[in-house]
Design goal:
- Helix 7 runs antiparallel to helix 15.
- The two termini are 33 Å apart.
- The chain has a domain of 226 residues: Amidase signature (AS) domain (Amidase signature (AS) enzymes).
- An eleven-stranded mixed β-sheet has the order 1-3-2-4-6-5-10-11-9-7-8, sandwiched between helices.
- The mean pLDDT is 96.
- The protein is of the alpha/beta class and 478 residues long.
Amino acid sequence: MTKIETTKLTIKELSEALQKGEVSSVEITSAHLNQIKKVDGEINAFLAMNESALKEAENSDKRRKEGKTLSEFDGIPVGIKDVILTRGIETTAASKMLKGYLPLEDATVVKKLKEAGMIILGKNNCDAWAHGGSTENSDFGPTKNPHDASRVPGGSSGGSAAAVAADEVPLSIGTDTGGSIRQPAGFCGVVGMKPTYGLVSRYGLIAMASSLDCPGPITKTVYDNALILSLIAGLDKKDATSSGSQVKDYLKDIEKGVKGLKIGLPKEYFGDGLGAEVKKTVMAAVNNLKKQGTKIVDISLPNTKYGIATYYIIQPAEVSSNLGRYDGIKYGHSAKGSKNLVDHYFESRTKGLGDEAKRRIMLGTYVLSAGYYDAYYKKAMRVRALIKKDFEEAFKKCDVIIGPTSPTTAFKFGAHQNDPLAMYLEDAYTVNANLAGIPSLAMPCGKDSEGLPIGMQIMGPHFSEDLLFRVGRVYEKR
């Protein structure tokens, strides 16, 4: 076989090489496993590995030889964020509470990848329970940014983004609740899609905030992202929130270009708090698209300023409800020698849950408690409706909206460790897409003076992922 540096290839290139017989699945899988051994001691993007990966690669090669390939992706490896269930592979949500937990079934997204013949290499690190924007909250140590090991990779899907950026896997499946795919994609210089809420099944996710969680792909290119979303999207009867909306052919118009499209620039995304280099680079990308035939439209999303406050009422409230099941009785960490049941609950959760999980449980329980529900949670839900309406009005004037993914590039470890609010504000430009349920595509658009990636996001109306890929593809090719 021809010597190919397979870890540098995109999914599209790997698929073509496999079909031409230039490389085998065993060679691809081995190369990525070797890359993990080479760099992951420093990066810490993987928490658990699939011991059967090479055997599955052999089976893929056998299918290909017999003309029985399951899909164009058969034999290509993939990483999975550790909040997504994988049968027989340890799934901990990066929390000591679930250390040693081996799921009995796969999440729907994992099932779809396996049915296509893709090979799960292992589980990617993240903030514990997906609570955070830096992957510093993992109970098993932080993931480091491949561009600068002194900086965070973003979060909560930091391990997924870092693994793709470090060529450990050609793609990973992450989750986005308030920016957890897009922000790390921006920090690590890769491509991440937060789909329309309900487009990709949540069945088999370790739930954080059920009305906000969205699984989605993190890849090296926009084209690859469209390929994978086509594979994992679609109705799932096991998920009550799954949308029955028809899955589009995301590649059909991806090369169509952007001539005649209107791009909205929200003034709220380019004001105070945005780093000068980030603003300059994102605007340069917008001007590049203008040269390709788009029209730039100034718009306003007036309730943007309430997004963080609204999100950090709704999200902890749902966290409080979802994490209530981890009581040390049914599964997970269980304290030994407790005097009674109440002590057992207290001791199991004290030792099994980290500081950020405790903080969010307390916040959520507070806003849902008698006397405060109307003052906080109910009011937040009303503001959420206003944020959604802002986007609906904006999309009457433009086709897509472009803005930065984060106010800064990747920050240093410990920069926000003693200031949770500063950490929460890193999500200022991403949470509103989750509150509104719309899709948003994050992609690299340049680097700052220190060589750190800068990300922009392209947002569109519900189920407009095909349009976002089309715009992103034009910029990617340029």
